[in-house]
Amino acid sequence: MIIELGHYALVLALAVSLLQAVLPIVGAVRNDRALMEIGTVAAKASFLLVAMSFAALTYAHVTSDFSVRNVWENSHSQIPLIYKFSGVWGNHEGSMLLWMLILTFFSALVAVFGDNLPESLKANVLAVQAWIAAAFSLFILLTSNPFNRLLDAPGEGQDLNPVLQDVGLAIHPPLLYLGYVGFSVCFSFAVAALIEGRIDAAWARWVRPWTLAAWTCLTAGIAMGSYWAYYELGWGGWWFWDPVENASFIPWLAGTALLHSALVMEKREALKIWTVLLAIMTFSMSLLGTFLVRSGVLTSVHAFATDPTRGVFILMILILFIGGALSLFAFRAAHLKAGGLFAPISREGALVFNNLILTTAAATVLTGTLYPLALEAVTGAKISVGPPFFNMTFGLLMLPLLLAVPFGPLLAWKRGDLLGAGQRLFAAVAIGLVAGSAIYYAQNGGPIMALFGIALGAYMIAGSLTELFLRSGLGKVTGAVALRRLSGLPRSVFGTALAHIGLGVTLIGIVAVTAFETEHIVEMKPGMTTDAGGYTLRFDGLRNSNGPNYSEQSGHFVISRAGVNIDEVWSSKRLYTARQMPTTEAGIRTFGVSQLYVSLGDGMADGGVVVRIWWKPMILCIWGGVLFMMAGGAVSLSDRRLRIGAPARAKKQTKPVLEPAQ
Amino acid sequence: MIRRLLFVAFMLLSASPVFAVNPDEVLDDPALEARARALSAQLRCMVCQNQSIDDSNAELAKDLRLLVRERITDGDSDEAVIAYVVSRYGEFVLLNPRFETKTLLLWGTPVVLLLAGAAAMLVSARRRAGKTTGTALSTEEQARLDAVLKD
Of A38, A243, A401, A409, whose CB has the highest number of CB atoms within 10 Å? Predict the structure, then answer.
């Protein structure tokens, strides 16, 4: 009964979305407030309906109702409760429903918090959101319905894919979708602006918080996925340039560009047309990512869908939305007035440079991802494009951008002083080189480029701090004054600094682990020891045990340093009984920001076991830097200027309280 | 020259050593083994999804790893090993596609986009610069200004 209610709620949500897709636009054209207001009500209603639908599916999963095909295919009565929950989106149908839930959630947010938007803009934005919602609910109902029943309910499910039985699944997809789908709001704003043929700095002020929020979530989602792959896949890699990873990385690159160009538009009214185009492209890349992953065009670990009807359906959605938006852009872009003049060397110029590099990088990753498919379709030739290609092209593209990062905030708007900025960054360059040399020396050398890579990261950190240092006037004024000046700075300044510092930290982590990592592949028998990263691991032996739905073989290792036992670690191999599928559960111990990574290999005939031990120096910097970036996004988001509705509310509150005359 | 240096630098940085190599496969000579590793990271495991033979546990990957090591110990150069593997398995095996006619667009995209973008930036900057300098008053405006100033 509950399942049928959920199914019905989804059909209703489609109907509501169709209304929401048409009526507000008609209202905007006729200037009819009642019709426009329908958008607000419908957006809230469709969110509630999809939430009910999602709750129904969750109920089926949690109660292990195997009469529902989706539950039978992807769940098991014995798996822990948390995986019954996260298993709801650990499959194609459920994850599309989650996609819908988040999409309607964002529409509802626009409906609730968009009171200070011009009525017609809000109506158009909600209508465009509804087009997307309608298309995807139709997709779910026609090709990927999670509520289909099985006539003879089986007694036991087929189990959730063991690789997915991890807390990572609980967090990674929702975060990723919050990012992916969050960009839909930017898309809708862009399309709405094109429909109205009007765009101004206020538009950018509304779009920027959405971009920031979506970007922060996407950043978190990608980093989470990377860490998950790192500890789960058992060979210690953290980024594989896998097509599915690229599918999320391309919108991230485009979104990062959007974040920066929206800044120019908001502050200086320049780059309007480009910002609108970028907003369209960013969500288009999210849609494309959804298509690539969901259609099964790219066969990889993530692609659980291989039904071509789905692929064709999403492809049609893709063509409709990207093609439609771009045609609208082609017709309307000329109507948008360009404004804001600036010299090439200026803050605007630096942000344009950022956009040039980031969009080129996004296009490069996109080309690399799709090229083998396209080439095979056109000529039949099969080639591979893998990590060596991406590392080289992407790395070369990023180098000038990373060098330029600290310059941006130091350049003035309109006309900047490159030489002056360079002089002010002198200390940062020196700090970078010293830090690079110090770490290089501490790691006992390595490829000489590692020194410069780390120096570059440290220079970015120091350079981002330079901006705060200069603006506080520290050294010229007393500490108290400097502190007051700092606290008076807009939060977005701190957000920028934090995000750029994070980029530097991540870079240091990437360079350090790439250059200084050591690996030891050894056959160990109980009692044997291996040295790694200055630690000694003694293998104690294997132990067999059983989990709720798997059997496990674990190796026990004692870690010592200079003869003193300081820690121990278990590394395991599991065999999931329902699917007879093996997984590795690597043993990981953290020392500072570095890690020891122990992975259990095959058992040998003579009683030994192959053990792979990696020393991963400073690897946590990779994700630590991402935490900085996320903090930067959150701090920027809390900037008073961006808090949605803040100006209007502040006015209302201060009016009645009249200040006494001095 | 600088480009070449950068290229070498990034090749050094990106040669990330992650592997599924078993102890019995490892060559005794560390220099040869390092070469085998670097080559393995460039070769695709044909039966896997997006894994190099260095990362993969698959049987076929192991066979290829052994083949690479065999060729290296026989004295083949890196290029000769790659050429041999490609002659047996086709270009699909290369994770870093060769620069040739059919990969022109692949390698060209970043370069062309970067140049086109930079050109567009220059053009628009020049156009803007033209606008800002075009503030000289027309004779009519000058006459009006003079009239106003006279009053």
Answer: A243
Q: Is A538 helix (H, G, I), strand (E, B) or coil?
A: strand
Distance CA(A84)–CA(A93), nearest Å, equals 15
Tell how many helices (H) and how many strands (E) occur in chain A: 22, 9
pLDDT at A36 over 80: yes
pLDDT band at A537 (very low <50, low <70, confident <90, very high): very high
Question: Which of A57, A41, A43, A145 is CA-nearest to residue A103?
Answer: A43
CATH class for the region spanning B16-95 = mainly alpha
Taking 3-state DSSP, the helix, strand and coil percentages for chain A, each rounded to the nearest 5, stand at: 65, 10, 20
Q: Following DSSP, what letter does each residue of A23-52 receive, concatenated?
A: HHHHHHHHT-HHHHHHHHHHHHHHHHHHHH
Q: Which helix (H) or strand (E) holds A455?
A: helix A448-472
DSSP-derived 3-state class of residue A506: helix
Q: What is the DSSP letter of A375?
A: H
Mutation for B interface: A353, A360, A403, most B CBs within 10 A: A360
The residue type at A297: V
Question: What is the C-alpha to C-alpha distance for residues A52 and A57, in angstroms, rounded to an integer?
Answer: 9
Candidates A250, A364, A384, A614, partner chain B, best to mutate (most B CBs within 10 A): A384
- Report ipTM (2 d.p.): 0.80
Identify whether the C-beta of residue A7 lies closer than 8 Å to the C-beta of residue A53: yes
pLDDT digits (tens, 9 = 90+) for A344-370: 788 888 999 999 999 999 999 999 998
Task: Reduce the DSSP state of residue A523 to 3 states and report it.
Answer: strand
Torsion angle, alpha carbons of A597, A602, A605, A610, to 10:
-20
For A168-180, the pLDDT digits (tens) are 888 888 999 999 9
Q: Whole-angstrom Cα distance, residue A265 to residue A68?
A: 50
Own/partner contacts of A298-302, CB < 8 Å, gap of 24 or more, are A298/A243, A298/A244, A298/A247, A298/A369, A298/A373, A299/B49, A300/A242, A300/A243, A300/A244, A300/B49, A300/B50, A301/A163, A301/A242, A301/A244, A301/B49, A302/A242, A302/A244
Tell me whether A519 touches chain B (CB under 8 Å).
yes
Chain A residue numbers touching B90 (CB-CB < 8 A)? 382
Average pLDDT, chain A: 87
Q: Per-domain residue ranges for chain B?
A: 16-95, 99-126
Confidence at residue A503, expressed as pLDDT on a 0 to 100 scale: 96
CB contact under 8 Å between A385 and B95, yes or no, is yes
Q: Which pLDDT does position A641 carry in this prediction?
A: 64
Planar angle of CA B47, B50, B52, nearest 5 degrees:
80
Q: At what angle do helices A272-295 and A201-232 cross, to 10 degrees?
A: 30
Q: Measured between CB atoms, which of B9, B42, B121 is closest to A449?
A: B9
Q: Who has greater pLDDT, B3 or A608?
A: A608
**A517 interaction partners in chain B (CB closer than 8 Å):** 16-17
